[in-house]
């Protein structure tokens, strides 16, 4: 089990309370797919209708935002940690 | 002081109502939460006339802020000058140029005092005893100062390389300062995890919907100081991108309440070139902004992954405005220009807005007859290290008149006699 996905509290409603998922994915995309196939209710919160990672969800590989690593195609190695963090925006709409 | 109990958090994507809780995102769809008001009710309880006689600070608009019913004003935040520009307006060829000067916002000399004021009202409502934030400096100053006055414990998280003056201006209030090896975006990520783990009121994390509402008072004051009218243009610095959207919300609210006439206002966003994900998205017409690794002297704007970036981009586009950015040398030049012409000493963020305004005028995006407001959000005394090299120490002279005359001869290239009265 080379990779650990850490799941924030707000997401655990959809993971039966699990705080993390160990998986054997080779890329970030595969890891997210494994996460959402294991917990299908989480799927629509991770990706939008176009299949992109949702705009207000940040994904980090170890210490780095994956957008600086080439995105989801980035390869994973044993011991890597993936972290999902909802973006903290105030927004404004009247 | 009056307060407004008719507000609650609403998801801006799915519309779900969450009541009033210490949470920044919808737990159903993970989109941001926004404070929603019952404007029909507000119209009945507050009017422009009711403001007459109230002190000129942000609390004069209390009904339009998310404050608990038992809220008591703890301090006089806001109420900053709207400075009518003469020299710089003349230099730039503008007829109606104003600087909204939050460099003198009470108590910690930046607009962040406004957002902390509403955030701490929420912190008390939710019974937090410890408050904190992730900060590029100004927010930490504001949290530390107001927490000290109001009896909260404060713990602030900052990038380790922050300007020494900003660190000192937090430490002096007795706040715990946690320096993080990494830029603001990494500090912010850690704070999201801290808020997830600890029962703390992190003002720009789990209290963010309440916090950001404080920014609206910057906009209310501008409208009132313009005689209850809206400007044609406003130039706003952008870090996380929240302020520009909240000024827009303030203006829309004033129109909804009938306090100002409807008017199109162009919103112009200002960033440093060394950290310009929002202006980059506007200029390249990107569907999503691309995060950046900040590298600029404007550290208070150095947020490479701006949480409110998508909203800021939309606000700018929808208003017919634009975004621009300026280099570090341009920021320094603009700080000096504003000081030399208007007597306002701003920090690097104000240099950014001033420099960008100059660029927008040169591009023809701001017209001479239009009313233009430039937001100055922080004080120059906090970032003296950014400009200190511009002003090398001068040679001392003897305390004798002939020494001074020799000094004038040398410096002015003229004879001391010609300078005499």
Topology summary:
The complex is a heterodimer of chains A (94) and B (421).
Chain A: E1 3-6, E2 20-23, H1 28-38, H2 43-46, E3 57-61, E4 64-65, E5 81-86
Parallel strand pairs in A: 1-5
Antiparallel strand pairs in A: 1-2, 3-4, 3-5
Chain B: E1 7-11, E2 17-19, E3 33-37, H1 39-45, H2 48-51, E4 82-84, H3 87-92, E5 96-101, H4 112-125, E6 130-134, H5 138-150, E7 153-159, H6 164-171, E8 176-180, H7 184-197, E9 201-202, H8 208-213, H9 216-225, E10 233-237, H10 242-256, E11 266-272, H11 277-283, H12 309-319, E12 322-326, H13 328-342, H14 348-362, E13 371-376, H15 401-412, H16 416-419
Parallel strand pairs in B: 5-13, 6-7, 6-9, 7-8, 10-11, 10-13, 11-12
Antiparallel strand pairs in B: 1-2, 1-3, 4-5
Helix pairs in contact in B: 4-5, 5-6, 9-10, 10-12, 11-12, 13-14
Write a concise keyword list for the protein shown above:
heterodimer; A: 94 residues; alpha+beta; Ubiquitin-like (UB roll); 5-stranded mixed β-sheet; 5 strands; 16% helix; globular; disordered C terminus; B: 421 residues; alpha/beta; Rossmann fold; 3 domains; 6-stranded mixed β-sheet; 13 strands
Describe this structure in words.
- The complex is a heterodimer of chains A (94) and B (421).
- By secondary structure, chain A is of the alpha+beta class.
- Chain A has one domain (3-86): Roll (Ubiquitin-like (UB roll)), CATH 3.10.20.30.
- Chain A is 16% helix and 22% strand.
- Chain A has 2 helices and 5 strands.
- Chain A has helices spanning 28-38, 43-46; strands spanning 3-6, 20-23, 57-61, 64-65, 81-86.
- A 5-stranded mixed β-sheet of chain A has the order 2-1-5-3-4, with helices on one face.
- In chain A, a hairpin with a 2-residue loop joins strand 3 (57-61) and strand 4 (64-65).
- Chain B is α/β, with parallel strands linked by helices.
- Chain B has 3 domains: 7-76 and 112-212, 3-Layer(aba) Sandwich (Rossmann fold); 82-108 and 215-389, Rossmann fold, CATH 3.40.50.1100; 394-421, no CATH class.
- Chain B has 16 helices and 13 strands.
- Chain B has a 6-stranded mixed β-sheet with strand order 4-5-13-10-11-12, sandwiched between helices.
- In chain B, helix 9 (216-225) crosses helix 10 (242-256) and helix 10 (242-256) packs across helix 12 (309-319).
- The mean pLDDT of chain B is 94.
């Amino acid at each position: 089990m080379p990779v650990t996905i850490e799941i924030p509290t707000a997401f655990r409603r959809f993971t039966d309370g699990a705080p993390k998922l160990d998986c054997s994915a080779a890329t970030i995309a595969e890891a997210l797919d494994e996460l959402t196939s294991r917990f299908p209710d989480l799927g629509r919160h991770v990706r939008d209708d176009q299949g992109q990672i949702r705009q207000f969800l940040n994904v980090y590989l170890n210490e780095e935002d994956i957008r600086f690593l080439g995105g989801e195609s980035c390869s994973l190695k044993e011991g890597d940690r993936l972290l999902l963090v909802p973006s903290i925006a105030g927004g404004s709409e009247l | 002081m009056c307060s407004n109990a008719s507000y609650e958090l609403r998801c801006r994507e799915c519309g779900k109502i969450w009541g009033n809780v210490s949470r920044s995102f919808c737990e159903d769809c993970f989109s941001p939460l926004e404070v929603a008001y019952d404007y029909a009710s507000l119209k009945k309880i507050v009017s422009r006339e009711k403001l007459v006689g109230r002190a000129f600070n942000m609390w004069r608009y209390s009904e339009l802020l998310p404050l608990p019913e038992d809220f008591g004003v703890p301090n006089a935040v806001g109420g900053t000058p709207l400075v009518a520009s003469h020299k710089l307006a003349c230099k730039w060829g503008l007829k109606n140029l104003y600087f909204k000067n939050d460099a003198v916002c009470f108590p910690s000399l930046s607009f962040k005092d406004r957002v902390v004021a509403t955030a701490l009202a929420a912190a008390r409502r939710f019974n937090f005893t410890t408050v904190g934030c992730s900060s590029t400096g100004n927010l930490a100053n504001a949290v530390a100062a107001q927490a000290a006055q109001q009896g909260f414990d404060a713990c602030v998280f900052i990038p380790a390389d922050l300007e020494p003056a900003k660190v000192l201006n937090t430490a002096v209030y007795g706040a715990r300062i946690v320096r993080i090896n990494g830029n603001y975006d990494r500090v912010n990520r850690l704070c999201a995890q801290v808020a997830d783990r600890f029962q703390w009121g992190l003002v720009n994390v789990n209290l963010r919907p309440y916090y950001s509402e404080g920014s609206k008072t910057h906009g209310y004051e501008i409208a009132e100081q313009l005689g209850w009218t809206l400007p044609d243009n406003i130039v706003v610095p952008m870090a996380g991108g929240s302020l520009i959207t909240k000024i827009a919300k303030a203006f829309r609210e004033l129109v909804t309440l009938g306090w100002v006439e409807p008017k199109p206002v162009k919103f112009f966003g200002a960033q440093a070139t060394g950290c310009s994900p929002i202006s980059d998205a506007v200029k390249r017409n990107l569907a999503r902004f691309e995060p950046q690794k900040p590298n600029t002297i404007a550290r208070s704007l150095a947020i490479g992954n701006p949480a409110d970036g998508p909203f800021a981009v939309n606000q700018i586009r929808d208003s017919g405005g634009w975004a621009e950015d300026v280099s570090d040398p341009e920021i320094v030049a603009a700080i000096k220009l504003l000081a030399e012409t208007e007597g306002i000493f701003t920090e690097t963020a104000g240099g950014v807005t001033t420099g960008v305004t100059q660029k927008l005028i040169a591009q023809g995006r701001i017209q001479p007859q239009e009313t233009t407001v430039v937001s100055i959000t922080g004080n120059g005394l906090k970032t003296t290290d950014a400009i200190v090299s511009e002003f090398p120490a001068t040679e001392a002279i003897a305390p004798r008149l002939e020494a001074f005359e020799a000094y004038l001869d040398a410096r002015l290239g003229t004879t001391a006699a010609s300078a005499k009265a």
